[in-house]
Amino acid sequence: MGMEIDLQGKVALVTGSGQGIGRGIAGVLGACGATVVVSDVNAETTEATARELGAALALPLDVTDRDAFNAAIDRIAAELGALDILVNNAGVYREYGGPVETITPEMWRTLWAVNVDGVFHGCQAAARVMRAAGNGGRIVNIASTQAVSPGVGVTYDASKAAVLQLTRTLALELGPHGITANAVAPGATWVNPGEPPPIDASAPIPRSGHPLGDAVASRIARIPAGRWARPEEIGNAVAFLCSPLADYVNGVYLNVDGGWLAE
Length: 263
Ligand SMILES: NC(=O)c1ccc[n+]([C@@H]2O[C@H](COP(=O)([O-])OP(=O)(O)OC[C@H]3O[C@@H](n4cnc5c(N)ncnc54)[C@H](O)[C@@H]3O)[C@@H](O)[C@H]2O)c1
Known about the structure:
Layout (H helix, E strand, L loop, with lengths): L10 E4 L5 H12 L3 E4 L4 H11 L3 E2 L7 H15 L4 E4 L16 H29 L3 E6 L11 H21 L4 E8 L27 H7 L10 H12 L10 E4 L7
Parallel strand pairs: 1-2, 1-4, 2-3, 4-5, 5-6, 6-7
The chain binds nicotinamide-adenine-dinucleotide.
């Protein structure tokens, strides 16, 4: 048998994992043997996904709440013995795009509270617990191709650029303690609940119907892979970064975009 990713004995928290990419990540980490905590602001999807994936713990959490995030991580360390892996995946983008003059202060603040404050809260709490335990650790932040190649709108694009730079700073700070911090940048990933995923290479790429609209859809039509990503494909990259194979990988920005950014 060839080399495999083995995460047995590792406790992993994935935020925003009630559905979509987070659910895909949680599924792959679990398949690699990790003890997975499914967590989402939506308590219903948290419970359902945890049950379906056979997760160790279902933990409803709003990442914008710093105290709640700290309490959640303390609870995981107490109940499951450690926190080895944190994947900051929770993020919002639907309803926050559009021309700059249409962005209200509420739209800006609400998106940043999740996409940036939420990631900061998680990194801070994880660093505290991982450093105290002294066993190293892995932090993976889910950015976006929009972090370096804008197109969705000022609010989202800037938030993901912030996630990218926050990750690099953490790599410098935490690397000496055996903790890596890396960013994964999904390209177009099909997560629309209730809609069949048009992700097979042979299927036509949708020109509209993406929550972000036709402008993004026309760029998606040029993805070299000729299809959308599956959530599990983002999970595969995360699993690699969490594995011993990536012991020496720190502070990177890993596109999982079917070649989109090579354009
Ligand atoms: N789908 C894509 O094409 C794509 C591309 C690049 C990056 N991303 C990023 O991937 C991540 C996941 O996106 P997705 O496409 O799976 O979206 P999604 O909307 O399908 O899932 C996001 C999940 O996060 C949860 N969430 C929202 N606010 C939260 C909060 N305050 N606290 C905790 N959980 C919260 C939601 O309930 C939902 O379950 C996001 O960070 C997004 O920006 C997505």
